[in-house]
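Hi team,

As requested, here is the filled-out complex form for the coenzyme A run. I kept the field names the same as last time so the parser does not choke. Let me know if anything looks off before we queue the next batch.

— J.
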Amino acid sequence: MSGLRIIGSGHHVPGRPYSNDDLARVMDTNDAWIRQRTGIRQRHFAPAGQGPADLALPAAQRALEAAGLGPSDIDYVLFSTMTPDHIFPGSAPLLASRLGMRTVPALDLRTQCAAMLYAFQVADSLLTAGAARRILIVGAEAHAGVMPWRDWDILEGTSDRRPSQEDWDRATRHRGWAIIFGDGAGALVVERSQQPGPGVLGVDIQADGRYAPLLCIPGGFREHPYVSESALASDAALIHMDGREVFKHAVTKLPKSIDALCQRTGTRADDIDWFIAHQANQRINEAVCHRLGVSIERMPSNIDRFGNTSGATIPILMDEMLRDGRLKSGQLVCLVALGAGFHWGSLLLRT
Ligand code: COA
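And here is what came back:
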């Protein structure tokens, strides 16, 4: 059966990396805690004025170049982000027009860190239905705007000031999530293969909105007006995350999903070459491997360099693996992720 095939990839991260020590200038945290609890050493942040479509542009250009294609060869754009350039419109049409694609359908997906599971399933369906021949899949995030500090100059190290006590306390209240996220973009070009072999072999995706309060930005259009002084003062525009609960759900739901997917597709976990997992916390991925009885070497990681780039983690990691030759055609790959919503699951792909 011929199916979805990845023919190009690219990624982009903005500016210089920010170390854990940099973060410790604006809140009460430290390098040892962050490394031990998450595996993160550094992350990148988009500068003010740059949104996910800006970050996605060089990533998409690299993916097109790797595929040996131009923008006019793409007939659909799927853009996953939870930090969109604007509240509306979505980031997909912005990226498409910046690439010079004038009227191509461009769809934003909102499944947060589980982005790529949904994007691959939608892309596969579009290709199978004949609605598209070549699709640009993008995951891009600019979390910098939601960070709980104001003193970027102190973080940058360009000012010797100390944050005010109020700013320090506020950032420290949010340190559980603020140390996790980073910015970046990953892009993949996929097409329907003419040869038998590659393709999406199975999908196990679930969603359960009862868990939305465990990881969300509570602000939104239920409020009148949707942005108000009181909403800002109560931090309704910041991320709210119950880290311990999210952790527990991830380490139980993800192995279950992989087990179900393996059963349904008649695959043994041992047959899978790579488990390409969302990079939320290295300890989550270690626990998932442990429960599956799979060596951590088969679940590659780059969280130490980029942190959690939400919808961008999987395409960034896939791009690195395609470029350094770890990910080759003919391999069996399992994508794994859990994110806000909750949305979670796994997807089996023959490359
Ligand atoms: N620096 C220093 N100390 C910190 C800290 C930080 N950045 N964040 C929390 N702490 C402290 C807490 O205040 C707490 O102190 P206490 O014991 O004195 O009360 C202690 O460390 C333990 O906090 P806890 O929240 O239990 O830590 P944890 O081991 O659960 O790690 C996370 C916190 C957020 C790293 C972890 O829960 C996690 O990764 N959860 C999953 C989140 C996730 O995957 N989100 C994205 C999904 S897409």
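Two things worth flagging: DSSP finds 13 helices and 13 strands in the chain. Residues 204 and 260 are 7 Å apart (CA to CA).

Thanks,
J.
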